[in-house]
Every structure is written in C-alpha cells, then in structure tokens.
Amino acid sequence: MSMVKKSPWVLHYDGSSCNGCDIEVLACLTPVYDAERFGIINTGDPMQADILLLTGGINSQNQAVVKQLYDQMPRPKVVVAIGVCACTGGVFKECYNIIGGADTTVPVDIYVPGCAARPQAIIDGIVQAIDLFQKRSDEHELLMKNKGKKADLKTKENNNSSDKGNEA
Amino acid sequence: MGKRSIIPYGPQHPVLPEPIHLDLVVEDERIIEAIPSIGFVHRGLESLITKKDYNAMVYVVERTCGICSFMHGMTYCEGIEQIMNIEVPGRAMYLRTIWGEMSRIHSHLLWLGLLADGYGFESLFYQTWRIREKVLDIFEATTGGRVIFSVNKVGGCIRDMNQDKLNMILRELDDIEKKVKEIQKTFLFDYSVQSRLKGIGILTKEQVHDLSCVGPFARASGLDMDMRYLGKDAYKDLEFHAITSNDGDCYARCEVRVREIFQSIDLIREAIGKIPDGEIDAPVKGLPNGETFMRVEQPRGEAIYYIKTSGKAFVDRLRIRTPTFANLPGLCETLKGANLADVGLLVLSIDPCISCTER
Ligand code: SF4
Questions:
Q1: What's the CA gap between B74 and A119, in Å, rounded?
Q2: Contact residues, B window 98-127, toward A, CB-based 8 Å cutoff
Q3: Residues of chain B contacting residue A16, judged by C-beta atoms under 8 Å apart
Q4: Is A53 a member of any domain?
Q5: Residue A122 lies in a domain
Q6: Which residue is closest to A19 within chain B, CA to CA?
Q7: Which among B13, B47, B355 is the nearest to A18, CB-wise?
Q8: CA atoms of A75 and A57, how far apart (whole Å)
Q9: B12 in contact with A, Cβ within 8 Å
Q10: From the CB of residue A153, how many other CB atoms can be counted at a distance below 10 Å?
C-alpha cells in the first residue's frame, strides 16, 4: 500500500443484487469504514472510473448495461465482484433469469465472498484492487514509454535478419 | 410551446444506488410524462419454491431485499405458521417486533442519508450513516449479521436475547435518539433544505388513495393507513398511532420518516419493558396444507404475501407484492409537471427499493 501513487476513481453498479451487498458497499464509503482513506473516490461516471465494483448476478436485462459500463471505462481498469451473487450467482444461481456471476460478462480480477459481504472484506477487496490498478498502470506507462523504442528495435532486427538473409 | 424531447434517466445514475430506468418526456424544463421500465434486477426468486423446501425458502425470501430482509423473512414465516396453526410463543413475537422496529430505524436512516445526498448535502449524508452504523452494531451484537441476519424460522426465532443485551439496546437507543434529534434540526428546520423540499411533488389524499400508494409515502398525504394496526406480533399490546402529515410534498415525506424513527425507538422501549419470559420457538410437526394472505408494514409500506401449499415439502405458489411496486404509479403522477432538476429527489421520495419490486 505504501507505494500507491495513483488515486483511482471507483464506480459502483448494482447488477441484480438484493441490496444487501449494495448498502454494504455504500457503508464502506461512509465515515465509520471510510474506504476513501486509501485514496479512492466514488464517482457516478463510468468514463472517469478506474475500478468497477459489481454487486449481484447478471441477468439478460442488465448484461448489456454492465458490458457497456465496462467498455466505457478507460484502460487500465480493474473489476471487483462483491458478494457471492457477483462471484457465482449465489443463492439465485438456479433462478431462471440469472445467467451467472459477473465473470460471465466482464473479466473479473478480484472476488469478494460473503452474503452479504462484510465491509472489512469489501475494503480488503478495494485495497487489492488499488494495488492491481497501480501495477497495471505502471505496466501501461512502461508500454507507452517503450512504444517508440520497441518499434525501433523491431525494425533494426528486421533489417539485421534481412541482411543475414542476403548474405546467405 | 417548446419542443418535446425524451431524456433517458438511469439505469446507472449517480443519485440512484439501484437501477431503474425512466424515459422522461420533457418540454423545455418541464416533464410531461415519465415512463418507467423495470426488469434490471429481476431474478425470478419466486420460482425457487420448486427447488427449495418451505424451511429453506426462509433464507431465499430474506434475500428479496437486503434492507427489509428481516421483515420479509418474518412475514413468510408467519404465513406458514398461520397455515400450520402454530402458536408462536410470546417472547418470539416480541423479539420479532424489536428486530422489526430496529430494521425500520435502520431503513429510515439509510433513506434520510440518501435524501441528503440527493440534494447535495454530503456531510449530512455521512452523519446520518454514522448513526445508522450504531443500529447495525446492535444487529451484529444480537444476531451476528449486519444486514442479512437469518434469525427467523418457521415456529419462532433462532436466537434469544438475554437481559444484558436488552439493556445494551436500551442504552444504545438513548444515544441514537440523542443523535437523531441533532440531525433532525437540519432535516426539518434548515432554511435551504426546506426550500429544496417544500411544495415539491404534491399529492393529495384522494390521489394517493386512488393510486393505492402505501407506507410513509401515503401517510405523508394524510392517509392514515398502517398495517401495524392489524395487531400482529407484539403490536396488539403496544401503544401505537400511525404518524401522518397533511402536506403531501417531499418535505412531509421526510418529516413522517423522521418522526417514525422516534416512534420506533419508543415502541422498542415499550416492547423491551413488556417482553415475557419463556420459549422462543414452538415445535413444528407435519407439512403445511392450505393458503394464506399476509399483510405487513415494512419500512417502505405495506407488503403482501400470498402463500399456497398442498401438504408437500415444497410450496405451491408464492407471490410477493412489495411497497415500491404499489408506489410506482404515485411516483409517475408526481413526476408530471415537475422540474427536471427535481427528478432525483422525487424518485428518492418514494424510498424506492427496486430489488424488492422485481425480485
Ligand atoms: S451476496 Fe447475498 S447479500 Fe449480496 S446481493 Fe447476493 S443475496 Fe444479497
């Protein structure tokens, strides 16, 4: 945690949860648990969000919404599934309208179990997500920095090999 | 006449913790019509009766809604108990009432916080939720769970509270009452808050009656309707008069809920004073056979349960009519002619619980 340089913005979307995990996520952002001390901030705008907190399973109606929210988020991004509903479908797994957990629609990085997930567990998930986000954005930066160099290297290699080919 | 356009509202929206979608037909800044479309949270919970027996269904029913979870479980259990003619011990009745009223305090505080956030008063939102955590602490101390605590079963309760715990509740309630009194000043008497809420979304008593609205939403328009009058559980022994207001606007809805918090605190105090000793569950024999119709006053209003069984381990038919579903026509009525900027507040003012509505 001490190495965190970025302050990721968090977007929360309620899939088809029962509200139990939902209000616990909100409770995490309020003073008693105060997840904002780790540098995150809650936002309602997917275009500015870095971490997506998903509660509840996926059904055919909200599948498109979840997918759209995920696509609207800029890269790099991290997805956290909160509660067993979002992990696997949970108690509603056998319901006719539930497709399954969040990973049926978007790639999930961190799973927070529990029904309802406790605030302590959710905060743990958020902290891990921040770390992962930091790692991904470092990689992303490196990639961007090396983009020009790599291209140079590649052309050089190509030239070399073509030279060799010529010699042979 | 201005040009008409349609503004989509939701399903993902900063004001809403839950997904509901409204198509708002607007002319200039005025709303002509609001067309709700729901279904984003539909799970098909009622269909699980074919896969889980009537005892296991208690846990599924509790997950209809995470906010009034306890009340859902309680109503279902009471329905099955009525079918099976089980006499529930008095202590279990009182315990259910205490937990039920505590759920109401927790739900109303949650709503007040969201309302404060809705009109952009973030610090008030945080204060309210800080008080709410105290109620959740009581839940955790007495049941082990924070929002979903399965303490109901067919025939009674699973956990008992000893005198120490009851005293602890009384102590904590004093503290909660003091703190709610403090924030009440801002919610009810602050000038800028009043100017945001007064005169917005007015519904008359006739309108709420015709649109069959329920709960605090209807009581704020002067309709004296509360299912606690039916005298189930411990309510038959408790002093109880529903709280109403005559204004019918957003401010009245806020006022009714704030006063209901104090009322619930008083009810819990009275129940703790009168709680009888004895068993907390009755033996259950055989399988349920028959049908029943249960009405209960949840924090958001009246919920109706229909349960049909035919002597098998599985329930034949389960149907839940939740308060938000009954209040949606009222919401669409208030939205007509409203200002676009007030939509968030108006949607909040019915205390929407979408996951209940769609199950
Ligand atoms: S995991 Fe449990 S509490 Fe959370 S949304 Fe699902 S049913 Fe509700």
A1: 25
A2: 110, 113, 125-126
A3: 40-43, 355
A4: yes
A5: yes
A6: B66
A7: B355
A8: 24
A9: yes
A10: 11
Q: Which residues line ligand 1 (CB under 6 A)?
A: A 17-18, 20-21, 55-56, 83-85, 90-91, 115-116; B 63, 66, 148
Burial B219-255 (b: 16+ CB within 10 A, else e): bbbbbebbbbeeebbbbebbeeebbbbebbbbbbbbb
For the record, the structure tokens of B72 come out as 């859902």
CB B300, CB B111: distance < 8 Å:
no
Please report, as a single letter, which amino acid is at residue A149: K
Give the SS3 label for residue B70.
Answer: helix
Output the residue whose Cα is nearest ligand 1's atom 2.
Answer: A115
Q: Does residue A37 sit within a domain?
A: yes
- Alpha-carbon distance of A34 to A123, in angstroms, equals 9
Residues sharing a CB contact under 8 Å with residue A35, sequence separation 6 or more, in sequence order: A28, A29, A122, A123, A126
β-pairing, A78-82 with B301-310?
A: unpaired
Among all residues of chain B, which has the CA nearest to that of A29?
B126
Can you tell me which residue has the tokens 């809650």? A42
Query: Between B163-189 and B250-274, two packed helices, what is the crossing angle to 10 degrees?
Result: 160
Task: Give the DSSP letter of residue A50.
Answer: S
Domains and CATH numbers, chain B: 4-358 (1.10.645.10)
**Cβ neighbours of residue B318 closer than 8 Å, sequence gap 6 or more:** B46, B49, B57, B61, B76, B305, B306, B307, B308
The rounded distance, in Å, linking the Cα atoms of B263 and B63 is: 27
Structural domain count of chain A: 1
pLDDT in tens, chain B (359 residues): 567 777 777 666 666 666 777 787 877 777 877 777 777 778 878 778 777 888 888 888 888 888 888 888 888 888 888 888 888 888 888 888 888 888 889 889 888 888 888 787 888 888 888 888 888 888 888 888 888 888 888 888 888 888 888 888 888 888 888 888 888 888 888 888 888 888 787 888 888 888 888 888 888 888 888 877 777 777 777 777 888 888 888 888 888 888 889 888 988 888 888 888 888 887 888 788 888 888 888 888 888 888 888 888 788 888 888 888 888 888 888 888 777 777 778 888 877 777 777 77
- Write the CATH number for A90: 3.40.50.12280
The parent domain of residue A58 ranges over: 9-167
Q: β-strands A78-82, A110-112: how paired? A: parallel
The amino acid occupying position B218 is A
Q: Tell me the C-alpha distance between B23 and A114, whole Å.
A: 35
Q: Is B143 left (phi over 0), alpha (psi -120 to 50) or beta?
A: alpha
Task: Answer yes or no: is A4 within a domain.
Answer: no
